[in-house]
Design goal:
Elements (H helix, E strand, L loop, with lengths): L3 E2 L24 E2 L1 E4 L19 E6 L7 E6 L2 E4 L5 E2 L5 E7 L7 E5 L2 H5 L7 E8 L5 E4 L13 E2 L2 E9 L12 E5 L4 E5 L4 E4 L8 E4 L6 E6 L2 E2 L2 E8 L2 E8 L4 E2 L3 E10 L2 E4 L4
Parallel strand pairs: 3-11, 13-23
Antiparallel strand pairs: 1-23, 2-7, 4-5, 4-8, 5-6, 8-10, 9-15, 10-12, 13-18, 14-17, 14-20, 15-16, 19-22, 20-21, 23-24
């Protein structure tokens, strides 16, 4: 069984490496220029296929002492919110960044309940690292430049995603009535995101409450964002025309992994429910 990385269309920036070779003639401090793409594969952020205006990232470097410096997306590019990152010499520094920005950084805690699924950008934790810059090359490129022989320094998803697509089976016609809701059980919804390391983890020993998700507007595809965690199987209950049908989602390798979208086709038949393998 295969899993697919989050497929996320990148911000349209034609950059060829994580560093830029343009010479800077200014001998004084040089301000950093921030570029950022989101790698991966399925749109999980509320903004869809690109950064939203107002999105804010926190940036840290390895040499100059800048820690958790906020840069916000404004006018199609990232601008400093307060402090500005400056380079003082041509000795390279390596940068990392995370999203969404939090004033104190550290480990951000969250709960991926039904309310959080409606404001997914707040829990879709992203992390980037490896971007190198200095006074001669002041562009901090959190971008994927492997096609040009460079390094992938783009933002990666630290969370997992489950996507369900519902199809009618024997004795069922979605023309008249469609599934109205579903419930996932056996999942840890609490967890934390380490902004320094870029890792997200479900809370150890936490309870596993049901996650009740509505299917509104006749939608037949729905997804939930979750903390990476061990989960050999996940309970699924689907409500159709006042009746509830149950099945189990088998998780490849018994684990929801960071950056993966586990996609299932769920067939709703008369008095039964069947689930295909994750792809």
């Amino acid at each position: 069984m295969k899993t697919r990385l989050f497929a996320f269309a990148a911000v349209a920036l034609a950059l060829t490496a994580c560093t830029n070779d343009d010479e800077v003639v200014n001998k004084g401090p040089v301000a950093a220029v921030i570029h950022a793409d989101i790698s991966g594969a399925v749109a999980t952020r509320a903004g869809g296929t690109a950064w939203d205006e107002g999105d804010c990232i926190g940036i840290t470097d390895s040499r100059y002492g800048y820690t958790n410096i906020p840069y916000k997306r404004e006018g199609g590019k990232f601008e400093p919110v307060g402090a500005i990152i400056y380079f003082k010499d041509a000795i390279p520094s390596t940068f990392s960044a995370y999203y969404p920005y939090a004033e104190n950084g550290g480990t951000l805690t969250a709960v991926t309940d039904a309310a959080a699924q409606q404001d997914r950008a707040a829990v879709d934790f992203l992390y980037a690292s490896g971007a190198v810059a200095d006074t001669k090359n002041p562009e901090v490129n959190f971008t994927d430049n492997t096609a040009a022989g460079g390094t992938d320094c783009s933002f990666r998803h630290s969370m997992s995603l489950i996507t369900l697509t519902f199809e009618p089976g024997s004795g069922v016609d979605f023309t008249a009535v469609k599934p109205s809701a579903y419930t996932l059980s056996g999942l840890v919804l609490e967890g934390g995101f380490d902004t320094a390391a870029g890792t997200a983890e479900a809370a150890a020993g936490a309870q596993r409450p049901d996650l009740d998700m509505p299917l509104t507007g006749g939608a037949l595809t729905s997804s939930v964002i979750l903390f990476p965690q061990t989960a050999a199987s996940i309970g699924l209950a689907v409500t159709l025309d006042g009746n509830t049908y149950n099945a189990v989602l088998a998780v490849p390798e018994g684990e929801l992994k960071a950056g993966n979208n586990y996609t299932y086709t769920v067939t709703v038949s008369n008095k039964s429910l069947s689930v295909g393998s994750a792809v």
